[in-house]
C-alpha cells in the first residue's frame, strides 16, 4: 500500500526519482491511481503553494516540486485517461496582447495543474481571439497576466468581451491591483500563484 | 551651500554627506525618448540624461555573451515580433514596436554538462569584449559636464540567466547548487577581469552601477538563505574589487528584494536602486530600516507619471521626498523607468518637482 506521506514528501522535496519509484510500485500493485493524485500529488502541490504564500518556499522549490509531480503524473496519465477521471475544471491562461513576460503566468499554470485543474496554456501575447480559442476548448475560466502598465489596459477589453459569455475572467501580474480588477469588472484578482489557485477553487470547486 | 557639480553631489550623497540638493537620475524606455524626439521636444543627438541635466551618466561597455563575436541571427519574423538566436545559443523573441524584456523561447545551454563544455571555457577575459571607444567617449562627455559617470552592467544573477534561462537557473539552485555557484563565480571573475582591463586602458569611472533583478511581485526569486549561499559570494567578490579601486557601488534590482537587503548590504552595496513600488517595495519603510546604512535611489511610484496624472505625481512625491531626503542619501528617480505613455511635459513636471522639493536649506 502506498505511503502517501512519503509521496507527498518526495514531491515537496523535488525528489523526482523517489516519486517515480513510489508511483511505479503503486501501479505494479494495481492500486487505485486516483488515490495517488488525491492523497499524494495534489495535497503535496497545495502544501508547497501554501508554503510559497507564507514565504517558506520560493520559486526554485516550487519548480522542483512541480517537476517531481510531473514525473509521477506522466507515468499514471494513460491509466487516468482510461479511468474516466474528470478534472476539477479547465482554465485557459496567457499573458495579454503586447506582453511577452511569462514567468508569473508559468508559475500560476504550474500551481493550477498541481492542484488538479486542466490548464490550456495559450502562451504569451494573447489577444481576444486567442482567449476565445481557449474557451472553445472548454475553458471555464480565463486567467490573464500582465507585467507592464502599458499592457494591463488590454485586460479591460478581455473582461468586456467575455462579460456575458458565462466565462469568468481572473487577472494578475506585477502592476495589477484589486482596485484595478474591480474597476474593469474582472471576476477575480490574485497577487500570487497560490492565491490564483484559491480563486479558481472558489469558482469551480464549490 | 553653493551649487555642487554632479560628481561632487552624488559622491557626497553615497556617503550621506551634506549636499545642495538631492541628486536627480532617471531611466527611460528607448521608445519614450524616440517618441519625444519625433515630437520635436528634444534633439536627436542628445541623450535624455544630458537633455534634462541628470546627475549620473552611464555606459554599458561589456559583452558577456559566450560567443562575443556572434551577430544575432534572425530566425523568424511576424507582423509584431522578431525572433533571434543570440551568442549564448538562446532563442529570444522581441517586439518591433516597443521595448520590453524578450520572450525566452529556448536555451541550448540548459544544464551543467552543456555549461562546462560549451559556455564556461569561452567566458574568458578579452579586451574585445569591451566597448572601449564607447566607454572613453561617454566618460569624457560626463567629465566635460562634471556629471557622475558610472560603468553600468549586469552582475552575476543577470549574467547567468541569459545563458541558461531563468527556469534552469532556478531549478539548478535547488537541484545542483554547486553548478550555480560555479556559474556565479565564473561571471564574477570575468567581470573583475574586464573591469581591470577597462580601468587600465580607459580610466576609472566615478562609480559602478550593477544590475541584478532578483525579485518579482512580493518576493525574491530565491530565499534569503539561497541568495546567501549561491549569489552573495559573487556579489561580495565583485563589490570588494570595486571598493579596492576606491569606487562606490550602486546596485539595481527590480522586484521585491527587501528580504535580501541585509545580505546585499553585507556584500558591500553603497546604494540600492529601483525600489519597485508595484512589487511591494516601500521606500519609507526601507529608508527607516536601512537608510542610515546605504543610499537609496528610486522608490517613487512611476504609475502616476505613466498615466500623466499630475496631481497624482505631486501626491506621490510630496508623500516621500521630504522624508527620505533627511539624511542626504536619497537620489530622486522613479521606481523603475519612464514608459512611452509618458508625455514629455509630464516628465518635465516630475523632474522639476524633484528638483525644487529636493533642495536643502543649508
Automatic annotation (TrEMBL), chain A:
<dbReference type="GO" id="GO:0046872">
    <property type="term" value="F:metal ion binding"/>
</dbReference>
<dbReference type="Pfam" id="PF02310">
    <property type="entry name" value="B12-binding"/>
</dbReference>
<dbReference type="GO" id="GO:0032259">
    <property type="term" value="P:methylation"/>
</dbReference>
<dbReference type="InterPro" id="IPR036594">
    <property type="entry name" value="Meth_synthase_dom"/>
</dbReference>
<dbReference type="GO" id="GO:0008705">
    <property type="term" value="F:methionine synthase activity"/>
</dbReference>
<dbReference type="GO" id="GO:0050667">
    <property type="term" value="P:homocysteine metabolic process"/>
</dbReference>
<feature type="domain" description="B12-binding N-terminal">
    <location>
        <begin position="1"/>
        <end position="88"/>
    </location>
</feature>
<dbReference type="Pfam" id="PF02607">
    <property type="entry name" value="B12-binding_2"/>
</dbReference>
<protein>
    <submittedName>
        <fullName>5-methyltetrahydrofolate--homocysteine methyltransferase</fullName>
        <ecNumber>2.1.1.13</ecNumber>
    </submittedName>
</protein>
<keyword id="KW-0479">Metal-binding</keyword>
<dbReference type="InterPro" id="IPR003759">
    <property type="entry name" value="Cbl-bd_cap"/>
</dbReference>
<keyword id="KW-0808">Transferase</keyword>
<feature type="domain" description="B12-binding">
    <location>
        <begin position="88"/>
        <end position="206"/>
    </location>
</feature>
<dbReference type="InterPro" id="IPR006158">
    <property type="entry name" value="Cobalamin-bd"/>
</dbReference>
<keyword id="KW-0170">Cobalt</keyword>
<dbReference type="GO" id="GO:0031419">
    <property type="term" value="F:cobalamin binding"/>
</dbReference>
<dbReference type="InterPro" id="IPR050554">
    <property type="entry name" value="Met_Synthase/Corrinoid"/>
</dbReference>
<dbReference type="GO" id="GO:0046653">
    <property type="term" value="P:tetrahydrofolate metabolic process"/>
</dbReference>
<keyword id="KW-0489">Methyltransferase</keyword>
<dbReference type="InterPro" id="IPR036724">
    <property type="entry name" value="Cobalamin-bd_sf"/>
</dbReference>
<dbReference type="GO" id="GO:0005829">
    <property type="term" value="C:cytosol"/>
</dbReference>
UniProtKB/TrEMBL annotation, chain B:
<dbReference type="Pfam" id="PF01208">
    <property type="entry name" value="URO-D"/>
</dbReference>
<dbReference type="InterPro" id="IPR038071">
    <property type="entry name" value="UROD/MetE-like_sf"/>
</dbReference>
<dbReference type="InterPro" id="IPR052024">
    <property type="entry name" value="Methanogen_methyltrans"/>
</dbReference>
<protein>
    <submittedName>
        <fullName>Uroporphyrinogen decarboxylase</fullName>
        <ecNumber>4.1.1.37</ecNumber>
    </submittedName>
</protein>
<dbReference type="GO" id="GO:0006779">
    <property type="term" value="P:porphyrin-containing compound biosynthetic process"/>
</dbReference>
<keyword id="KW-0456">Lyase</keyword>
<dbReference type="GO" id="GO:0004853">
    <property type="term" value="F:uroporphyrinogen decarboxylase activity"/>
</dbReference>
<feature type="domain" description="Uroporphyrinogen decarboxylase (URO-D)">
    <location>
        <begin position="165"/>
        <end position="353"/>
    </location>
</feature>
<dbReference type="InterPro" id="IPR000257">
    <property type="entry name" value="Uroporphyrinogen_deCOase"/>
</dbReference>
